[in-house]
Amino acid sequence: MSKVLETTLEIDLKALTHNFNYLKSKLRPTTKFLGVVKAFAYGSDAVEVAKHLQHLGADYLAVAYVKEGVALRDAGVTLPILVLHPQPVNFKTLIDRCLEPSLYSFKVLNEFIEISKNLNQSNYPVHIKINTGLNRLGFTADDIEAVSDKAKTNESIKIKSVFSHLAASEDLNESEFTLNQISQFKLIAKNFSELLGYQPWLHICNTSGVLNYPEAHLDMVRCGISLYGFGNNPKYDQYLKPIASLKSVISQIHLIKKGESIGYNRALVAENDMKTATIPIGHADGLSRIYGKGKGFVFINDQKAPIAGNVCMDMIMVDITHINCDEGDEVIVFDNNHTANDLAASTGTISYEILTAISNRVKRCYIK
Ligand SMILES: *Cc1c(COP(=O)(O)O)cnc(C)c1O
């Protein structure tokens, strides 16, 4: 990996291949693979990642919103795309762009049927979301008879899959709850298929579902964070490779005298003489203000430099009193060795949040 000259997110597509192959090795050959590329492929680059997954042989993609699916179609992505959380206002666009909706309530089901009919669709593929305990989106066991009646009497739609989402698949202390979600889902899906008279695909596993509950892989799995290199557990992290590395450079070095302050609100007053480096990355780039005042850190010449004072919009100052370095030297915010997990843990959040926060302003480059 080359030295960067400005703040850069390096996206390693070889690591993506590695993670995809690792996950595939956990699946039966008949289980389909859906790559979750919502939120700019977890803050990296949805188009590059989606195209690469298509090239690797993924069966499906998923995004959260219609707009994200449209961006993939505009870029020439041809895989089927499940939209996990669409709004009816976008259903016409969704159909125009061959995206497939998750239908999670009677309101969205009815509106989708209406619009698909008006657009003279027949057997338009839809995916029915079942709520098995996350209590976020989805139909319940009591709803499925009415849902199947609607599906049977409206030939504008065809139920391609029935799915649910696990609430705590990464937490083995909650395995009883998770196993209950899985068995509830299987039962609801069985009754639903009988009512429908055909068998849609079934899927319930996200990353930690895939890794912790192999008996629940069913017809398809939906992997997000693992594709990007995190397994929500050190046991699995060791087999995965983070695809994104966030790097920057030292813009300027300052010698600070005891008693002087650093940055906005004078949030740090030097207790002794110290040395700081100013780095061109701030909260507008996705490094939240929460990381200020020593909570967050970067690495310079492999040594840890805590953030001094508040995070600014476009920069941070870090404490390099004990680090031998020069202006122009490389700064690692996270990479393979100093992972986004470690930085996230410093403020009690998770890798998902720090990755998806990296803003559009940060230059992307690709290792192919
Ligand atoms: C985001 C999402 C996933 C992916 O979850 P990971 O833990 O990142 O693998 C899967 N399914 C649904 C419904 C999601 O919203």
Automatic annotation (TrEMBL):
According to the UniProt record, list the residues that bear N6-(pyridoxal phosphate)lysine.
38
Pathway(s) per entry: Amino-acid biosynthesis; D-alanine biosynthesis; D-alanine from L-alanine: step 1/1
Q: Name one Pfam family in it.
A: Ala_racemase_C
* GO BP of this protein: D-alanine biosynthetic process
In terms of InterPro entries, this protein maps to: Ala_racemase, Ala_racemase/Decarboxylase_C, Ala_racemase_C, Ala_racemase_N, PLP-binding_barrel
Ranges for domain Alanine racemase C-terminal? 243-367
Which of the seven top EC classes does this enzyme belong to? isomerase
Cofactors (names):
pyridoxal 5'-phosphate
Q: Which PANTHER family would you find in this protein's record?
A: ALANINE RACEMASE, ALANINE RACEMASE, CATABOLIC-RELATED
Catalytically driven reaction(s): L-alanine = D-alanine
Domain of life (superkingdom):
Bacteria
Keywords in UniProt for this one? Isomerase, Pyridoxal phosphate
EC annotation? Answer: 5.1.1.1
Q: What does this protein do?
A: Catalyzes the interconversion of L-alanine and D-alanine. May also act on other amino acids.
Stored NCBIfam families:
alr
Name of the protein in question: Alanine racemase
The catalytic residues are 38 (proton acceptor), 264 (proton acceptor)
List the coiled-coil residues. none
